[in-house]
Design goal:
By secondary structure, this protein is an all-alpha fold. It is built from three helices and no strands. It folds into two domains: about 30 residues, no CATH class; about 50 residues. Helices cover about 75% and strands about 0% of the residues. The longest helix is centred in the C-terminal third of the chain and has 26 residues. The relative contact order is 0.10.
């Protein structure tokens, strides 16, 4: 088990270095577009509405909290582009 964790950690570190160098493989993208973050936020809100469990704390935190974080990423990215 410990050997597998070491291999996974080494692989993740190699991918991080490849991203920084700009040599990452096609299946390991270097970034996520703002439209993707926006659509995930919309999808999470839609799933919350579809579940129809409006008083469930787990759904509120899990779906609406994630939607808020996705929206925050979009807002911060747009603010950074304007500078």
């Amino acid at each position: 088990m410990g050997d597998q964790i070491t291999k996974m950690y080494t692989w993740a570190l190699d991918m991080a270095v490849a991203r920084q160098k700009g040599t990452s493989p096609f299946w390991c993208p270097t970034g996520v577009s703002l439209s993707t973050w926006s659509l995930f936020a919309i999808g999470n809100v839609g799933l919350y509405i579809y579940a129809q469990k409006y008083t469930s704390l787990q759904l509120m935190v899990g779906l609406l909290g994630t939607a808020a974080l996705d929206t925050l990423v979009v807002v911060l990215a747009l603010a950074r582009e304007r500078k």
